[in-house]
Design brief:
By secondary structure, this protein is α/β, with parallel strands linked by helices. About 45% of the residues lie in helices and about 25% in strands. The strands form five sheets. Strands 20-21-23-24-25-26-27-28 form an eight-stranded mixed β-barrel, surrounded by five helices. Strands 6, 7, 8, 9, 10, 11 and 12 form a seven-stranded antiparallel sheet that branches. A five-stranded parallel sheet has the order 2-1-3-4-5, with helices on both faces. The chain is elongated, with a radius of gyration of 54 Å. It binds ligand C2E and calcium ion (CA) (2 copies). One calcium ion (CA) binds near residues 478, 536, 568 and 598.
C-alpha cells in the first residue's frame, strides 16, 4: 500500500511542528497554518486524514470542515478536530459536521498516535472499498454495454423464470420492450414453436433450471413475436450459479437464423436440382432411388429406371446453338413431367439425359406403356423460336430387383441398355439383360486388348491369296488384320473393327496395318516376289484429311511403288462428300495406287458413281457366291456384276469361293479372279510366304 498522507491545519506554527514531528513516521505529513489556503493544499496532497484546529482566525475549523464536506473532491476525507475545549457541545457539533473524531489539547501524543493510526487504517480500507466498488461498477457497465450491443439475443431470468434482463436484440425478436418485459415470465414473452409442426416447444430456461445444466433449443424452433412476426431461432439456456454453486437464475442466448435457413434451403435446392429445368438432379435421384428400394422390397413391387437420351442432341446443339438446345431440353422436360405421379418422378442427370423413375410396379407391361408414352411425347413436334423440331429418344430400362440390387447398379444398367438402344439405331427402348451385360463386358475386354495391341504394335496381319481362276496363279493378296486375346486366341476383325471405328482407334489401327503391308510388299518385291496387296480401309479412315498423305508417307517409308498397293473401300466409305472422295481417289489413282470397291452388290450399287469415281476393281460380295448355286437370283446378280465390270473395264474379283463348283460356275460366267477358302484361308505372313512365295523367291 502506498504511504498515506495527513494534512494538519493550525494557525499556530508551534502546534504544527509538534504534531508533524510526532506523526511523520506513520504517514506523510503536510502542514498548513493559513486556513484560507487549506482547501488548496488539500486538493494538492489528497490527504487521508485532515487534522483541523477549531480555533483559528478568519475561518474557524467548523467553517472549514463545512467547506471540505461540501466539495466533491474532499468530501470523503476523514476529518479529526483538535481543540482545547472539552465540552460536549463542541464535540457533538464537530461530529454533526461529519468529523470522525476529536482530539483535545494538551495533546497526549501516544493516545493521539493510536487514534490516528486507527483512522488511517479505516481510511485505507475505505479507499480500497471505494476502488473495488468503482471497478465493479465499470465492469458492470462494460458488461451491460456488451450485452446491449452484441448481435445475439440475451435474456436473463431469476429462478422463478421471471425476466431480469433483456437486451435490444431479444426485445426486437420477442416484440417486448425492456420495461414491460422485466418481471414477466419467460414463457409469456417468448413464444416458441416447432417450425414444421407448429407444436408449442418447452422453453429451455425451464429445463436449465430444473436440470441445472446447459440446454440447447430444439433444432427446428421458431419464435413468434408479440406482434405476430415469426423468426427461426437457435438458442441455448444456461443456469447462473453463485460462488457456492447455488442456481440464482438463467441466461438464455438465441439467434435469428431465418435468413441463414432460407439460404441453406436455397443452397440445398441448388445442389439437388438442375437449374435449367428445375428437375431433381443426379444427386437427388440417387437419394430417391435409395429411399424407394426398401419400399419396393416391402410391397414386393418393382422399380423401373428409364434412362432417356435425346438422339443426335449434340448435332442439334452444335448446329442450332445452345440456346435452342436449352429450350428443347426445357420443353421436353415439361412434357415428360406429365407422366409423373405419386409413383413416378423425373430427373435430369446430364446434358440431354433424363431419368424417369417408376416405383410400385406390378406388371411388366406397365414399363412398355411408359416407354412408349415417353417416345410419343418426345416425338411430337415442338416449336422453338418459330421453328418446328421433331425429336427422337433412345431409352434404356433396368428394373429392380430383376436387373440390379442397388441404385448405382440400376443406373449403370439403364445406361448400358440405353447405349444398346443407340447402337440398334436409336429411337427405341431397350431392356437391360445379362446377355447385354456380358456383351458389354466383352466389348470392354476387346477394347482393352485393342488398345494394348496398338500401343505395343502387336496387331497381326494375315494374308489371303487372290488367284487367277483359270490358272490358279497368285495375282495378289488381301491383308486382314488379327487381334489376339491373352490365351493367344484370334479375335476376328468383325468383333473389333466396328469398335475401333466408334472409338477412333481405327486411325492408329489402319496406319499400323498399312505400314505392315507396305513393308511386306516391299520386301517381297525385293526378293523377286511381286505381290499386289489389298488393304481394307474403313470409312472413317478414308474421311481423314491426312489419308492421302498417310498413304504417300507409308509408300515412301518402304520405297514401295504404288502399283503394288490396292485400297479396298466399301461403298459406304465413298458415300459422304462426293467431290472430296473423288478428288482423293483421283489423286491416289494418279500416283498409281489401285482402288477396289469391296463387298459390291450389298450397298447402293449405283451405276452413276461407278463411273464417277476412278475405280480399278470390283469385289463381288461373298454372299452372292455362297448362294449362287441354289439361288438363281444370286447367280443372276453375279452374272450382271461380271458384265457390268467388263463393260466399265473394271477388274473383277469374286470373294468367298469355297468349292470347286462355285469356281467352275464363276469361270463359266466369265469371272477371272477370286479368293476364298477353296484356295486358302487368310494365313499368317510366314505361312503365306512359305506357301506362295518361297518357290518363286530369288
Ligand atoms: P472383307 O473385306 O469382306 O474381308 C473378307 C472377309 O472374308 C475376311 O474376313 C476373310 O477371312 C473372309 N473370307 C475370305 N474367304 C472366305 C471364304 O471362302 N469363306 C468365308 N466364309 N469367308 C471368307 P475377316 O478376316 O474376318 O474380315 C472381316 C472384315 O473385317 C473384312 O471383310 C473387312 O471388312 C474387315 N477388316 C479386316 N481387316 C481389316 C483391316 O485391316 N482394316 C479394316 N478397316 N477392315 C478390316
Ligand atoms: Ca476386303
Ligand atoms: Ca469383302
Amino acid at each position: 500500500m502506498s504511504k498515506q498522507t495527513i494534512l494538519i491545519v493550525d494557525d499556530q506554527p508551534e502546534n504544527l511542528v509538534l504534531l508533524e514531528s510526532g506523526l511523520n513516521d506513520m504517514a506523510d505529513v503536510v502542514t498548513c497554518h493559513q486556513p484560507s489556503k487549506a482547501m488548496q493544499v488539500a486538493f494538492e496532497c489528497d490527504p487521508d486524514i485532515i487534522l483541523l484546529d477549531i480555533e483559528m482566525p478568519d475561518i474557524n475549523g467548523f467553517e472549514l470542515c463545512k467547506i471540505f464536506k461540501a466539495h466533491v473532491k474532499t468530501r470523503a476525507i476523514s476529518i479529526i478536530f483538535i481543540t482545547s475545549h472539552h465540552d460536549f457541545e463542541h464535540e457533538s457539533k464537530a461530529l454533526a459536521l461529519g468529523a470522525i473524531d476529536f482530539i483535545s489539547r494538551p495533546i497526549n501524543l501516544s493516545v493521539c498516535r493510536i487514534r490516528i493510526q486507527n483512522h488511517l487504517r479505516l481510511s485505507a480500507q475505505e479507499r480500497q472499498l471505494t476502488n473495488a466498488y468503482k471497478a465493479l461498477q465499470s465492469e458492470k457497465e462494460h458488461l451491460h454495454v456488451t450485452l446491449k450491443s452484441i448481435a445475439d439475443a440475451v435474456i436473463a431470468t431469476d429462478v422463478e423464470e421471471r425476466v431480469t434482463f433483456i437486451n435490444p436484440v431479444a426485445q426486437r425478436l420477442t416484440g417486448w420492450n425492456g420495461n414491460s418485459a422485466i418481471g414477466q415470465s419467460i414463457t409469456t414473452i417468448m413464444n416458441l414453436f416447432d417450425a414444421s409442426t407448429n407444436d408449442v416447444l418447452i422453453n429451455p430456461v425451464s429445463v436449465a433450471l430444473e436440470e441445472e445444466r446447459v440446454v440447447a433449443m430444439a433444432l427446428n424452433a421458431k419464435i413468434v413475436s408479440r406482434q405476430g412476426r415469426e423468426y427461426r431461432v437457435t438458442d441455448s439456456a444456461a443456469p447462473i450459479k453463485d460462488s457456492c454453486g447455488k442456481v440464482t437464475g438463467t441466461v438464455l442466448v438465441f439467434q435469428d437464423v431465418t435468413e441463414s435457413i432460407a439460404m441453406a434451403t436455397q443452397m440445398s435446392h441448388l445442389t439437388n436440382h438442375d437449374p435449367l429445368t428445375g428437375l431433381p438432379n443426379r444427386l437427388l435421384l440417387h437419394d430417391r432411388l435409395m429411399q424407394s428400394i426398401p419400399c419396393n422390397i416391402r410391397t414386393n413391387t418393382k422399380l423401373a429406371v428409364l434412362l432417356i437420351d435425346i438422339d443426335n442432341f449434340k448435332y442439334l446443339n452444335d448446329t442450332l446453338g445452345h440456346q435452342v438446345g436449352d429450350k428443347v431440353i426445357f420443353q421436353l422436360s415439361q412434357r415428360l413431367e406429365e407422366l409423373c405421379d405419386a409413383h413416378t418422378s423425373l430427373s435430369r442427370i446430364g446434358g440431354d439425359e433424363f431419368v424417369l423413375m417408376s416405383s410400385g410396379i406390378n406388371s411388366s407391361n406397365h414399363i412398355d406403356v411408359v416407354a412408349t408414352q415417353i417416345a410419343t411425347l418426345a416425338g411430337t413436334p415442338m416449336k422453338v423460336g418459330g421453328e418446328e423440331y421433331k425429336l427422337s429418344v433412345s431409352i434404356g430400362i433396368s428394373v429392380f430387383p430383376d436387373d440390379a440390387s442397388n441404385e448405382q447398379e440400376l443406373l449403370r444398367h439403364a445406361d448400358t441398355a440405353m447405349y444398346r438402344a443407340k447402337t440398334l439405331g436409336r429411337s427405341r427402348f431397350c431392356y437391360f439383360s445379362d446377355e447385354l451385360q456380358s456383351e458389354v463386358d466383352q466389348r470392354f475386354q476387346i477394347e482393352r486388348l485393342l488398345n494394348k495391341a496398338i500401343e505395343e504394335q502387336t496387331l497381326e496381319v494375315f494374308f489371303q491369296p487372290k488367284n487367277n481362276l483359270a490358272t490358279g496363279e497368285l495375282v495378289g493378296a488381301e491383308a486382314l488384320v488379327r487381334l489376339r486375346d491373352e490365351n493367344n486366341n484370334i479375335i476376328p476383325p468383325d468383333a473389333f473393327i466396328p469398335l475401333a471405328e466408334e472409338t477412333g482407334l481405327i486411325h492408329a489401327l489402319g496406319d499400323q496395318v498399312l505400314h505392315q503391308c507396305c513393308k511386306a510388299a516391299s520386301r517381297w518385291l525385293k526378293e523377286g516376289n511381286p505381290v499386289r496387296v489389298g488393304v481394307n480401309i474403313a470409312a472413317l479412315q478414308f474421311s481423314n484429311e491426312q489419308f492421302y498423305l498417310n498413304i504417300q508417307q507409308a509408300l515412301k517409308t518402304y520405297q514401295l511403288s504404288p502399283k503394288w498397293l490396292e485400297l479396298e473401300l466399301t461403298e459406304s466409305a465413298l458415300m459422304h462428300d462426293f467431290d472430296m472422295t473423288r478428288t482423293t481417289l483421283q489423286k491416289l489413282s494418279d500416283t498409281g495406287v489401285s482402288i477396289s470397291l469391296d463387298d459390291f452388290g450389298t450397298g447402293y450399287s449405283s451405276l452413276s458413281y461407278l463411273r464417277f469415281f476412278p475405280l480399278d476393281v470390283l469385289k463381288v460380295d461373298r454372299s452372292f457366291i455362297k448362294d449362287m448355286l441354289n439361288d438363281d437370283q444370286a447367280k443372276n446378280i453375279v452374272d450382271a456384276i461380271i458384265h457390268l465390270a467388263h463393260s466399265l473395264n473394271l477388274q473383277l474379283v469374286a470373294e468367298g469361293i469355297e468349292t470347286s463348283a462355285q469356281l467352275e460356275t464363276l469361270k463359266s460366267l466369265g469371272c477371272q479372279e477370286g479368293q476364298g477358302y477353296f484356295y486358302s484361308k487368310p494365313l499368317p505372313i510366314h505361312e503365306f510366304e512359305a506357301r506362295y512365295l518361297s518357290n518363286n523367291a530369288k
